[in-house]
Structures are given as structure tokens and as C-alpha cells.
Write a structure and sequence with these properties.
The chain is of the alpha+beta class and about 90 residues long. It has one domain: HIT family, subunit A (2-Layer Sandwich), CATH 3.30.428. The protein is about 30% helix and about 20% strand. The protein is built from 2 helices and 5 strands; from the N terminus they run E-H-E-E-E-E-H. Strands 2-3-4 form a 3-stranded antiparallel β-sheet. Strands 1-5 form a two-stranded antiparallel ribbon. The longest helix is centred in the C-terminal third of the chain and has 21 residues. It starts with a strand and ends in an 8-residue tail after the last helix. It comes from Cynara cardunculus var. scolymus (Globe artichoke). One of its GO terms (molecular function) is nucleotide binding. Pfam families: DcpS_C (PF11969). InterPro entries: Histidine_triad_HIT (IPR001310), HIT-like (IPR011146), HIT-like_sf (IPR036265). Keywords: Hydrolase, Nucleotide-binding.
């Protein structure tokens, strides 16, 4: 994947992805982890992040692997929302 780098010790998201924090993970697999935002703007404000360090979204490329990752991230978010708020029809 373009822009993928080794985990950065100073990156809070890398620390969360490696379970090096007390953050409760709502979902974890080989590609992504998901957890609640520490400063939520909605009752179910989840963050789904890649396990591999990607510094910014600008580091993603129009490659199959990157499309697959972003699609997987969206699916995980939608699955969590469906699980936790099955009657919800609105999300962003």
C-alpha cells in the first residue's frame, strides 16, 4: 500500500492499533481497528483506522489495495453502527 510505513512510536493511532493504550477497541482485524472518539460529536462517534501507519489520506493512491482498505473501513463502521443503533437511518 502506498504511504504505508512502520508504526510510529509518537503516533497515537499506531499506539491504539497496537493495543498499547487503554482504549477499548470495538473491532479489530488484520487491516483495521475501531474505537469510540474521545471527544465525540455524536452519541456513536466511531473511528476506524488502519493497523498499518498511513500518515495522511493524501498518501493513499488509486490502487486496488487502497480502495479495498477504504471500503473495508467503511464496512466496519457501518457494521458497528448497525450493531449498536439498529434503528438508525442517518450517519455521516
Amino acid at each position: 500500500m502506498a504511504g504505508t510505513a512502520a508504526a510510529s512510536p509518537s503516533c497515537i493511532f499506531c499506539q491504539i492499533a497496537r493495543s498499547s493504550t487503554t482504549t477499548t477497541l470495538l473491532h479489530t482485524d488484520e487491516k483495521v481497528v475501531a474505537f469510540q472518539d474521545i471527544n465525540p460529536s455524536a452519541s456513536r462517534h466511531y473511528l476506524v483506522i488502519p493497523v498499518d501507519h498511513i500518515a495522511t489520506v493524501k498518501d493513499l493512491r488509486r490502487r486496488t489495495e487502497d480502495y479495498s482498505l477504504v471500503s473495508h473501513m467503511l464496512n466496519v463502521g457501518q457494521t458497528l453502527l448497525s450493531r449498536d443503533a439498529p434503528n438508525s437511518i442517518q450517519y455521516r
